[in-house]
Every structure is written in C-alpha cells, then in structure tokens.
C-alpha cells in the first residue's frame, strides 16, 4: 500500500519536472554506455569549435546554424530556413523529446564533425545547453 503511494508520487513528479527529466534520462543512458562525469565547458567547446570539411568546403560549426547566442534564432547554412532558439529558457520546446534530440545529434554531428558524437560528447553538450 505504502509503496504504491510512493510510486504515484514519484510518477507525478516525473510529469512535472518535464524537460529536466528528458536530459537526466539521456545522461543516465550515456553513462550506461561508458561516459563519465559531464562537463558543460567541454560541451561549449565542442559547440564553438570549427571542424574542417573533408571535401575542402567551408569549416563547419554547430554555431553556424544555431548561432553563438543560443537565445537568438539561428539560420540553416544550407537551406536558409530559420531555426528556433536552442536555449530552453526562451524556447521551452527544446530538450523535451529524447527521440528528436538523438535524431538531430546523429545528423548534426555527422555533418559538422564528420562522425557521430560519443555518449560523453552528447552529455557534455546537453549539460551545456540545458543551462542556457
Ligand atoms: C547545417 C545546420 C545545422 C548544424 C551545423 C547543426 N545543427 Fe543542430 N539542428 C539543425 C536543425 C535544422 C535542427 C532541427 C530543427 C529545430 O530543432 O529547430 C537541429 C536540431 C538540433 C537539436 C535538437 C534540440 C531539441 O531538443 O529541439 C540538437 C540537440 C542539435 N541540433 C544539436 C546540434 C549540435 C551539437 C551541432 C554541432 C555538432 C549542431 N546541432 C549543428 C541544424 C543544424
């Protein structure tokens, strides 16, 4: 009886916490895949860094599409389409859907870095982004 009450309380808390929960879930998963302590500064460094384009085109950066100021809308470098701000503080939709996050990590890391991001790198980026 007691246990059941506690379960209900815990589940309702999960519903309330919302996006913090999605990020925490992702971090727990990355840890189970071998990542250790996450570091927001390392996440910011990955975000700001320029990566050479293997085909000799312009260097690639996360900030190229999402802008360096995460509270501002970005613009897709290829299509010119507006990208809503990345900062959850101004765009509450961000980091609320783990499937969406993983889908775009995959695409954007491959495009920008020329490879998939490691669980450690994804976690670092998430702890950096979630504070913005
Ligand atoms: C060529 C343009 C482009 C680049 C470069 C780019 N992104 Fe994105 N990113 C997008 C688009 C387009 C979306 C999906 C549309 C949207 O979310 O507004 C997106 C969405 C995301 C999301 C989903 C966030 C959420 O929960 O809504 C994450 C996380 C993300 N990008 C991370 C990165 C990281 C990390 C890098 C650098 C390794 C990066 N992006 C580089 C275009 C880009």
Tally of strands:
2
CATH class: Mainly Alpha
How would you name the CATH homologous superfamily?
Cytochrome c-like domain
Ligands (ions, cofactors included): heme C
Order of helices and strands, N to C? HHHHEEHH
In total, the number of domains comes to: 1
**Which blocks of ≥5 consecutive residues have pLDDT under 50?**
none
- Helix proportion of residues, in percent? 40-55%
**What is the CATH architecture assignment?**
Orthogonal Bundle
Mean pLDDT: 89
Cα separation of the termini: 41 Å
Under CATH, the topology is which?
A: Cytochrome Bc1 Complex, Chain D, domain 2
> What would the principal axes of the Cα set say about the shape?
globular
Provide the gyration radius in Å: 17 Å
Biggest β-sheet description: 2 strands, antiparallel
Question: Number of helix segments?
Answer: 6
Category from helices, strands and their pairing = mainly alpha
Strand content: under 5%
Question: What is the spatial order of strands in the main beta sheet?
Answer: 1-2
């Amino acid at each position: 009886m007691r246990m059941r009450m506690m379960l209900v309380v815990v589940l309702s808390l999960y519903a309330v916490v919302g996006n913090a929960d999605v990020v925490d879930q992702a971090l727990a998963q990355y840890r189970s895949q071998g990542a250790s302590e996450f570091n927001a500064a390392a996440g910011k460094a990955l975000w700001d860094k320029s990566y050479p384009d293997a085909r000799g085109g312009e260097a690639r950066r996360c900030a190229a599409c999402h802008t360096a100021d995460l509270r501002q809308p970005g613009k897709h470098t290829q299509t010119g389409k507006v990208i809503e701000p990345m900062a959850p503080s101004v765009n509450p939709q961000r980091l609320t859907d783990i499937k969406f996050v993983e889908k775009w990590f995959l695409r954007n890391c491959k495009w920008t870095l020329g490879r998939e991001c490691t669980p450690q790198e994804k976690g670092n980026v998430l702890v950096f982004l979630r504070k913005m």
